[in-house]
Amino acid sequence: MGGWQVVVADGHAVLPEGMTHLPDEAFFDRTSLVSVAFPRSLTFIGNRAFYNCSSLISIDLPASLASIGEGAFCGCSALSSVTLPVGLTSIGTRAFEYCSSLVYIDLPPALTSIGSRAFAGCSSLAAINLPAGLTSIGSRAFSSCSALSSCCCTLANVALPAGLVSIRSYAFHCCSSLSSVTFPAGLTSIGIGAFWGCSSLGFVTLPASLTSIGSGAFDRCSALSRVTFPAGLTSIGMNAFAGCPSLTRVTVPDTATISTAFPPATTVLRLPPKRMRDLQRWYEAVDGALAYKRCRPLLYGWLERAQTGLGSYGPDGAARQRDLEEFEGDFGLLVE
């Protein structure tokens, strides 16, 4: 194997120390392979290195590994556990495609890119942690991950990393358990069919930076009932929200091209971008006021306890009354 002596016995492979690059197709279609001991020197796993190793159950990759090649573990249908090193920066196209037993994978903080179809067809994958430094998610990266309901740490919520600027085509295609998505502030585009068939998705708030939504991006999101569009949006592709019968009303900037993006029954209100921004600021102010109103008794109670603990209140109650009046004077107008 590339001049290296590799020991394979009873389905267990031991790669020699000093090896830095596992060649392409090193264990291609070795269906009897159960486990692999990786050397600490390994930095790269070649394309299709473990393709269709259907008996491989778990892998513990070395800390030195920086990159996983295309289709490296594609078709490893028994693979249920993967430990990725903290220094890993890229996962190649189809790297873990059709690893149908894979339930969870913790992606390392150094990871910047996930290739196309990297986890497509991982039908048991229920949760995945997307690191903050991730900048690229390839097309169909999580396509048909029908059990996927959690990204990051909140159940049934996908919080996309802050550095992400684009969601590629069909990235979360048919992730039917996803119920909400939190988009990063710098996101500029959502690709074709990115969330197609995410039938549990109930609402979407799109970031102010977003300019384009691809065709069919949210098609067949049958539970989607509310979408907040940014004022700077310039285009919504054909059928982007087709098959969303619960989406009865939307407000879209009149500068955006929308083609046949929405179902015929959806009422589409077109407003100038400035008007949309003004409305958004108003909604945010109202939300803030309502949040304050809910918390006001707790806030004042905390202030009162703190002042009492400091011995600030005398027996006549004057200081206590003064604090109450100042508190209401500062914040009372928010909820009148």
UniProtKB/TrEMBL annotation:
InterPro entries: LRR_5 (IPR026906), LRR_dom_sf (IPR032675), Surface_bspA-like (IPR053139). Pfam families: LRR_5. This is Surface antigen-like protein. The lineage of its organism: Eukaryota, Haptista, Haptophyta, Prymnesiophyceae, Isochrysidales.
